[in-house]
Amino acid sequence: MSIVELITRLRQQNIRIWVQDNQLAYAAPKGGFPKSLRDELVAHKSEVIEFMTSACEDKRLKYPLTPVSRDTNLPLSSAQQRLWLLDQTQPDTALYNIVAAVVLNGPLDVTALHKAFAVVVERHEALRTVFPAPDGQPFQKILPTIPVPFSLIDLSALPELIRDMEITWQQNAAAARPFNLATGPLVRFTVLALQPTAHAILLTLHHIIADGWSIKVALNEISTIYQSLAGNRSIPLPPLKIQYADFACWEEQFFEDKALQSQLAYWRSRLADIPDTLNLPRDYRRTASTRPIGGAVPIEFSPTLTRQFTEFAQEQNSTLFMLLLAVFNVLLWRNCAQEDICIGMPIATRHMPELEHMIGLFVNTLVLRTRVTGEDTFVDLLAQVRQNTLEAYNNQDAPFDKVVKLIRSRHSSARTPLFTVAISLDNAPAANLESAGLTLESLPVHTSASQFDIALYFGKSSETVNGTWVYDARLFEKKTIRSLQQEYIGIFENVLSKSNIPLSTLPLTSCTAELKNKSTREKRNTTLKNKLLETAKKSV
């Protein structure tokens, strides 16, 4: 196993490693560091330290990450630029809202919680940033203070059934309420009082100032600060020496490096002549509307199946993410009747220790292209996916918007460029709010908009893999997504026992047959409709 592969596997297991005082440090989920992987890391500790030190020092020596002056207009990062442009083409939408929802059980000091949130807003400039564009060119404007958008809604008098419905409604309302990028604030904090010792917290941010990792940074800091305030102790968090605007300026320098040109050349070759779209069997025709309507279907693998496919991935020298991606490719190959498949994947760009505890948008998008044929075995396909993924990781610094311009693919405003389906596995450290007599319970997030036709968002607990299939409800009915989801699980069960037979001979589930019949009916109905239209034109 190469050093890059080892580090990749560690990341996919939610294990973060860094070099501190010439020693290798790590943070891992409780019980989430397999002995075989730990032994591999110990055996190659010196090589890992050398690799990580040289990789970081190369960037730092050329372009040190240091504070910059706030007296001039501060540039947007490349990821922010893309989101700002999307907001201009799709104004007044909540498509890029991020919502976290948790329930805190125990006696809660709401005043201390409000103050804790205010301290987090004060600590992180990103939460006080707006994006004016007086001449059409946006810049980051950091406000010295903002009115902390905090609201408390008392639901405790409602019957339990009505209260649960109201929680869902409040989540939907938080997710669907747009932000104004030019004026802000771009963060909201809502507390729902459910019972005297139960409160739901809704944290909503615009994606331009935060990512999924940032949500957990914010919740962890709120927990730490709340515990200190509730106990009348000083806050133990040191001030941040570097803020997101400093990173955006650093990135602007780094993108001028020749190494970036090499990565762009890789993507130009890798994505040459990609297909325009995936021919998924849809329930409704795609329109030019830019107002997506999202739907979501949860998914959870049993502990037994999770253990089986985790062990299978390790046997194949692959990661859990690679396995999830490979099965997704089989699903799309079956239902799209295409061998050339492109899937999008968000990837965190927190390469330096200074960025670990910062709130901001540290995300790039990679396009994972796979060629699937019926002659391939699943083992063959997984090996290809593994190679493609590692190559993508090695070229992850090229900004997605620059790759899009480079490829110049044909696409309409009704769908994302280069790919229409996506997959991700959350590897951010879990938030910890279990302090000061409080325990945490996560709530499922209800989605009111979808950025893609279909996106698979996975997370891993100690025993199971779970997640959500988010889809564009303008294109698919929920029962169609449930059928695809059932087939996805069925493919997992099949490939674990039949990994060395051609993919074309894998058993078809009833879901697969139903979807293929549906696709055939759609094509037949389209042909009939076209003939009727031609006849009508001739008769006029």
What features would you describe in this structure?
This protein is an alpha+beta fold. It folds into 4 domains: 3-62, Arc Repressor Mutant, subunit A, CATH 1.10.10; 78-246, Chloramphenicol acetyltransferase-like domain (Chloramphenicol Acetyltransferase), CATH 3.30.559.10; 294-427 and 444-507, Nonribosomal peptide synthetase, condensation domain (Chloramphenicol Acetyltransferase, 2-Layer Sandwich); 513-540. It has helices spanning 3-12, 35-43, 45-62, 78-89, 110-123, 160-176, 212-230, 244-254, 258-270, 303-315, 320-336, 378-394, 400-407, 478-497, 510-539, and strands spanning 16-20, 23-27, 97-105, 129-130, 141-142, 150-154, 187-195, 198-206, 294-300, 340-348, 363-371, 421-425, 439-442, 454-460, 465-472. Helix 6 links the parallel strand 6 and strand 7 (187-195). It starts with a helix and ends with a helix.
Beta-strand portion reads 15-25%
Mean pLDDT: 84
CATH homologous superfamily caption of the largest domain: Nonribosomal peptide synthetase, condensation domain
Number of domains: 4
Which stretches are poorly predicted, pLDDT < 50 over at least 5 residues? Answer: 510-516, 518-533, 535-540
Structural class: alpha+beta
Oligomer: single chain
The top level CATH class name of the largest domain: Alpha Beta
Largest sheet composition: 5 strands, mixed
Proportion of residues in helical segments: 40-55%
CATH third-level topology of the largest domain: Chloramphenicol Acetyltransferase
